[in-house]
Amino acid sequence: MFEPVKAGLGGFMQDFYLGLVPTTRPLTEFTARGFAQCVAWAPGRMVDKAEDMLGAWMKNDSAQAPTRPPKLPVILVGVANDYTPIAGNMGTQIADAIDVQLPGDDKCRFFQMRMVAGEVRAQVAIFAHDEPTAKSLAAQFLLFLSSPSRRGFDAVFPYAGVDNAFPVQIEAPDNPAMSIETGTKNLKVLAIDLTLICSIPLFSAPGEGEANDGKGIPGTADPAGFPLVADVDITAREVES
Length: 241
Description:
With 241 residues, this protein is of the alpha+beta class. Helices cover 23% and strands 31% of the residues.
């Protein structure tokens, strides 16, 4: 259920990469290398295992291109396994299902929805051979975050043939670029902690054998909606001819 959040974070990182200004020679190569060879997912939020993260990426990079040595700099992005629910001004949890109609649904069906609102911790780890390159990447990423229009992204949750976009807000502490000691010469690591404040919709529709509106097929990606209740005029009387 959180995969759309990770996908949205990936798109956010790609937007950052496309706007990078190369201020060092390694960054010139970095910006020309391509996003897929520069930014990768790490297995969880693991700065305490920074060298393991880097080693796994370099091993994979070498397997894909065995004729050249793995290159730095590289950015690894990890998402923590824990989760914290939130409420109040930061988000709204909807524990009891409500009736909803999805904008863009041509069949105008009614479904039910509950809402999970919570915090997911993430981390951006920058690996470089030299300090100027690592600092430049960190500074430019924090500059990217500082723009009011870039303090979040949309997570898209497909349901019943409709892409439902829910905003994810990004929060970072005041001084987030932490230097991580690895004990390895010529390796600079800077880690930036992020908090993703997200809303996750949980949609539901009538199951097989349950009453529905007949506008879809229960149990499929094109489900039927819940039946509408018609208004009844209790003052109506039969007219005698």
